[in-house]
Write a structure and sequence with these properties.
single chain; 13-stranded antiparallel β-sheet; two-stranded antiparallel sheet
Length: 209
């Protein structure tokens, strides 16, 4: 949605290997628009930032990418769905018409990499009023939905070697041109997956004091 000022694709995953060792993965692509336009050269006003993290019981690894849309370095296409920055990708592999039903997810840093397959086992959830999430009394809002029902298989590449993993993941999607009012300074966000299969999202806005 290049006509909106800010947009992001945010995946968090809780994983384990065959011995039950826990791992955490995070993959995020942010898009920020200098102007509500697109182009296919270095004047492209769509800027992208990618962040990836991988947590083990002993260590945390992270990496970041910066890129400009319009020159092939970073971008998003809707049909077929693909969000990417450099060689990091979130790509649909769905064959049933719903692009978010199946995804591949890849990223790498200096000491880690991961390649994961995500398969949805439940519906997309629209937050607020049918996906329109109001953030302030003045009317600031975003378009916001999640896919919290992914089953995951894949591989982590760590300094000690590759690890096969399984687990669950949560995709958050949000875009807006005015996410916060002048007296709001940010927010805290949580996604919770319960052992009985229930899912819960909660966020708290900061009032600037």
């Amino acid at each position: 949605h290049p006509e909106y000022r800010i947009e992001w694709w945010y995946v968090t995953a809780t994983l384990q290997d065959a011995e039950g060792t826990p791992y955490g993965v995070q993959w995020t692509l942010f898009r920020s628009a200098l102007t509500p336009e697109t182009s296919t050269d270095w004047s492209a006003p769509q800027l992208f930032m990618g962040h990836a993290g991988l947590t083990t019981p002993e260590a945390h690894f992270s990496a970041e990418r910066l890129g400009r849309g319009g020159i092939g370095q970073a971008g998003v296409s809707a049909d077929p769905f693909r969000a990417f920055i450099d060689d990091w990708q979130m790509t649909s592999t769905a064959t049933d018409g719903d692009a978010l039903n199946a995804l591949t997810l890849t990223a790498r840093g200096n000491e880690f990499a991961f390649a994961l397959d995500l398969m949805a086992t439940g519906p997309v959830i629209f937050h607020g009023d049918g996906g329109y999430s109001v953030k302030s009394a003045e009317g600031q809002a975003s378009y916001y939905y999640s896919q919290p029902f992914y089953e995951v298989t894949g591989q982590l590449d760590l300094p000690d070697g590759p690890v096969e993993v399984t687990g669950t993941a949560w995709l958050d999607r949000e875009y807006s041109s005015q996410p916060l009012s002048d007296d709001q300074s940010g927010w805290d966000w949580f996604s919770l997956q319960f052992t009985n299969g229930a899912r819960m999202m909660a966020f708290a806005l900061h009032d600037g004091t």
